[in-house]
Amino acid sequence: MAITDVLAASDISTAINACKAKDSFSPKTFFATVGLSKKSPPEIEKVFKMLDQDKSGFIEQDELQLFLQNFSKGARALTAAETKAFLVAGDMDGDGKIGWEEFSALVNAS
Ligand SMILES: [Ca+2]
């Protein structure tokens, strides 16, 4: 399973290039640009499972920080501010991590 099985490589490059500058990352812009917002729930779930690297069922803060590298190996880590903003945008129940339903809601709102 590769991220390019779900998303177009050209859309991934566009999305990664659009947030090259530190603190320019916005999850909603990224999900829209990368084409994830238009995907079906099973496809979105495949991506969620790739982002959940330790298979805990949640995307934790350390996984959020390295979020972009799931799309492109050479991509930068998110800054502390971006990671925190991403978490706040997705974490509706306030448990400090993003579950599947929260991820799906965030992607669909993008
Ligand atoms: Ca996890």
TrEMBL record:
PANTHER family from the UniProt entry: PARVALBUMIN, PARVALBUMIN ALPHA
Function recorded in the entry: In muscle, parvalbumin is thought to be involved in relaxation after contraction. It binds two calcium ions.
CDD domains for this protein: EFh_parvalbumin_beta
Family: Belongs to the parvalbumin family.
Record's protein name: Parvalbumin
Domain EF-hand: 39-74, 78-110
GO molecular function, one term: calcium ion binding
InterPro entries: EF-hand-dom_pair, EF_Hand_1_Ca_BS, EF_hand_dom, Parvalbumin
Underlying gene: LOC107669169
Annotated Ca(2+) 1 binding sites: D52, D54, S56, F58, E63
Gene3D superfamilies (UniProt xref): EF-hand
Alphabetized PROSITE patterns for the sequence: EF_HAND_1, EF_HAND_2
Sorted UniProt keywords: Calcium, Metal-binding, Muscle protein, Repeat
SMART domains the record matches: EFh
GO cellular component, one term: cytoplasm
Calcium among keywords: yes
Residues binding Ca(2+) 2, per UniProt: D91, D93, D95, K97, E102
Keyword Metal-binding applies: yes
